[in-house]
Amino acid sequence: MAEDTALDVLRRVFGYDSFRGDQREVIDHVVEGGDALVLMPTGGGKSLCYQIPAIVRDGVGVVVSPLIALMQDQVDALRALGVRAGFLNSTLDPDERRLVEADVAAGRIDLLYLAPEALRTEPVLRLLARSRIGLFAIDEAHCVAQWGHDFRPDYLALSVLSERWPGVPRIALTATATPRTRAEIAERLHLTEPRARHFVSDFDRPNITYRIVPKKDPRRQLLTLLRSEHEGDAGIVYCLSRASVERTAEFLTANGVAALAYHAGLDAGTRARHQSRFLREDGLVMVATIAFGMGIDKPDVRFVAHLDLPKSVEGYYQETGRAGRDGLAATAWLTYGLQDVVQQRRLIESSPGEAAHRRTQAAHLDAMLALCETVGCRRRFLLDYFGSPAAPCGTCDTCLSPPTTWDGTVAAQKLLSTVYRLRHERHQSFGVGHCLDIVLGRGTEKVVRFGHDRLSVFGVGTELPEATWRAVVRQLLAQGLLAVQGEHGTLALTEASGTVLWQHREVPLRQDSTPARSTGSARSGRRTSGREQDGARSADLPPEAQKRFEALRAWRTSVAKEQGVPPYVVFHDATLRQIAADPPATLTEVAAVNGVGETKLAKYGTQVLEVLEALATSGAKDDT
Ligand code: ADP
Ligand code: ZN
Q1: What's the pTM value of the predicted model, to 2 decimals?
Q2: Do 159 and 29 share a domain, yes or no?
């Protein structure tokens, strides 16, 4: 029974043919009243896992989500499908709030979005106490984990759910969880097995290609990437600092790329305006700190670029996961260099708080560095990290041009012994810059004082170019064979350094390639993937279909403007592409397109046919 109902809702309301991955099982389990912990990559289709049970079950489905700024859009998207949805947060005025509360209490709403802090407030708890609740969904559930990378204390309040509403099913969902974080989430939310079922999907995002390149002139490198592969595409560029967000946005704008800035230093109005433009307009680039992006479900983000090193693999995977939710080809691109390592190590070293917390941060950073320095497949590394072994992908940068390694043992010994002797014979310690000067034999003041005879005693060689020495230092830092100390970030030895200096441990190092411009990537050489089942063809459309696609997009833009919603709330690109590629002639044929449900068919079906017909007649006139 339940299965048929769920499938019926999928087809009728959402306009999709079939469930993906674990969706079917999760939905059946929750519809029948079971608790669940769902791990699915971004774009995997988590929302349906709670939306369909909320529609099918009696009572309101309460969705806890950390980002109030997106609730309006989420609710708009559901209403556009004919689903009764609402939200309660601080952006509502008292009248609006009363309306939503009345709807909830009277059972006129299937989905109610709330921020976690709302569950600490009496009025909300009272409202829920007198309403019939169908389920609780906890979105972005990794926020409850202290070991994770995005802990939010408000999430701890969610443990009340199982106590106050023992009979109501709870479903927690996240896109980022290593086995360790997953255990912590389950523990804190009382979702341990076998009481709750855990659904762990394949974490692969086959349509995303991963590339990590040595940092030279990051903004120029980014511009080259955009011009060669992502002209006119929507994308997100992450920077570490507010200042660098501002400079990068200015740089892109000055170079003809439509870019907006987003960081916590901008006033709330500007942030909201920029976010809304990014969601509503085509082809904008958002330059942001990581304050931006959680819960952004814009399906057609074509690239995510990092100009600075993320602090953890979890963060990196979540941020890059915002690209290509529609299943079409997308790029994850990161530039990374010596200064990134020094800066991050120093930040951790000088961060206040407990030693245990610093160790957690250092472990996260180590994993991120290992990803950057790996000579193996990036995707395989990522999937391994999230607990699912995989074969090399054949599409990431390291698969396309496998980096070679060289024997860096002697170089490492020279560098480490320089640091060692400076410390033990001179009681001096220097930052990266001065240490490089010394190994390169360059006479800065401090080095001159240090004396030339010393330099030769150290066996320091100028035979390696500076770029290589920088790569040596970077990789020694990344491998934990060298450390950064104190607020000046001076270099110091670690316990492991001794194994290189005195036990002749070998040190294979990665040969930095010049950033190869893989022309055959993203746009042309896309590989087909299971997720392209949406009819979102990877190959570019033939000219006729391309014309139809453009006409449909123009129509969509005007409809979206009129209704004040993002274009993808009207139809996704994937849906328009399918229509353009194989134009329907009747309403029944429109209904068969993926992403066209009952409500959208009734609202837009005729208009779509009209757009196609107008184009066909104008095309016919041109021919005569
Ligand atoms: P997540 O929350 O896991 O990042 P979403 O729930 O936003 O992912 O889903 C990603 C995209 O996939 C959305 O555009 C959604 O409409 C689409 N989608 C989800 N499930 C299906 C399905 N069974 N068939 C086709 N498209 C789907
Ligand atoms: Zn690979």
Answers
A1: 0.78
A2: yes
